[in-house]
């Protein structure tokens, strides 16, 4: 690991201020890993497996996508990036080995190689006030551009402009030094919170194969194509779409607690019946957490709890 990058990671471990109001924030993202898919048949291989239309991607473009099991339950959600000679899958690092193993089961005779490149590649988040434009950055969500031998992609956000930068370890020092001159170091928790506020769900080992795409709003945030053709679980996902309104959707919620809320934990009513599950959570400040919860629409008017005794004090429909 390079010296400047290691120094940033060390500094970040002691940086817990999510409320950082610096106008330009640099966020190393060690919580993210990358799987690379290469080979003559990489495009068709992914097109036949993922929920979104891989064929629609141009070089330096990205899209949200998912990988389902045969029952239409999400094994993983990720950002798929098309590069010059490969595709890169950006996802929580603790899901990398699991997804690589599952995708490898479908290779058979395909001319495809799947590799976990998390140790040779790094991700950096950039968050800036909309009034600041020190770089000529992409204007459209999921569009990328080359910057100092790295790829910089615009990511949706409700309150700021933000960008994901993907760099090889060979270039990470030069990139870090360049960015660190004008962008102030911030916590990786800030990036997680922005994902939650934007309604961008993630799947973790504890929640894999728990949700359909509709239950975490993947269809609403353009992570599902209903015109691309077959993939594992496609018939079930399509049936849920064309039958009408789903019975569960993703909501933004807040609780006040010092407890750790595990992904996949139940959301229950006062009577103890299961109303939904936690998709992800992030501390906003001491004793206060923001959540994404997959919730039955029929339970919206109920008093709801997590861990059976922590009341949800606020539930908000996502802005999509």
List the helices and strands and how they pair.
Elements: H1 3-13, E1 24-28, E2 32-38, H2 42-47, E3 62-68, E4 74-82, E5 87-92, H3 96-104, E6 113-116, E7 121-128, E8 144-147, E9 150-155, E10 161-168, H4 169-179, E11 184-185, H5 188-197, H6 234-242, E12 248-255, E13 266-269, E14 274-285, E15 288-296, E16 304-306, E17 310-317
Parallel strand pairs: 1-11
Antiparallel strand pairs: 1-7, 2-5, 2-6, 3-4, 4-5, 7-10, 8-9, 9-10, 12-15, 12-17, 13-14, 13-16, 14-15, 16-17
Question: What is the name of the CATH architecture of the largest domain?
Answer: 2-Layer Sandwich
N→C terminal distance: 40 Å
CATH class of the largest domain: Alpha Beta
Overall average residue pLDDT: 92
**Major β-sheet annotation:** 6 strands, mixed
Report the count of strand segments: 17
Count of the separate structural domains: 2
Q: Please state the overall shape, judged from the principal axes of the Cα atoms.
A: globular
Please identify the structural class as seen in this structure.
alpha+beta
Order of helices and strands: HEEHEEEHEEEEEHEHHEEEEEE
Radius of gyration: 20 Å
Under CATH, the homologous superfamily of the largest domain reads Probable tRNA modification gtpase trme, domain 1
Number of H- or I-type helical stretches = 6
What is the strand content? 25-35%
CATH topology of the largest domain: Gyrase A, domain 2
How much helical structure, as a percent, in the residues? Answer: 10-25%
**Major beta sheet, strand line-up:** 8-9-10-7-1-11
The low-confidence runs, each spanning 5 or more residues with pLDDT under 50, are none
């Amino acid at each position: 690991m390079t010296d400047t990058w290691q120094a940033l990671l060390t500094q970040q471990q002691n940086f817990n201020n999510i409320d950082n109001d610096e106008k330009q924030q640099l966020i190393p993202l060690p919580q993210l890993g990358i799987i690379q898919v290469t080979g003559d048949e990489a495009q068709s291989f992914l097109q036949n497996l993922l929920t979104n239309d891989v064929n629609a991607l141009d070089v330096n473009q990205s899209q949200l996508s998912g990988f389902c099991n045969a029952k239409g339950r999400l094994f993983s959600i990720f950002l798929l990036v098309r590069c010059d000679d490969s595709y890169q899958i950006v996802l929580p690092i603790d899901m990398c080995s699991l997804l690589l193993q599952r995708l490898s089961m479908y290779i058979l005779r395909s001319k495809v190689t799947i590799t976990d490149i998390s140790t040779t590649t790094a991700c950096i988040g950039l968050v800036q006030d909309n009034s600041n434009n020190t770089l000529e950055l992409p204007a459209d969500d999921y569009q990328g551009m080359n910057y100092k031998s790295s790829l910089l992609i615009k990511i949706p956000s409700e309150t700021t402009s933000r960008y994901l930068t993907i760099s090889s370890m060979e270039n990470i020092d030069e990139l870090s030094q360049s960015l660190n001159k004008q962008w102030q170091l911030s916590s990786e928790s800030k990036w997680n919170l922005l994902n939650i506020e934007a309604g961008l769900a993630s799947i973790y080992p504890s929640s894999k194969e728990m949700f359909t795409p509709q239950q975490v709003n993947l269809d609403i945030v353009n992570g599902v194509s209903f015109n691309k053709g077959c993939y594992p679980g496609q018939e079930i996902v399509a049936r849920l779409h064309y039958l009408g309104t789903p019975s569960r959707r993703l909501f933004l919620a807040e609780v006040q607690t010092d407890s750790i809320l595990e992904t996949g934990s139940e959301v229950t009513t006062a009577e103890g019946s299961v109303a939904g599950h936690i998709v992800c959570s992030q501390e906003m400040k001491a004793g206060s957490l923001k959540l994404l919860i997959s919730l039955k629409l029929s339970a919206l008017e109920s008093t709801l709890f997590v861990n059976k005794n922590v009341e949800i004090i606020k539930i908000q429909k996502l802005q999509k």
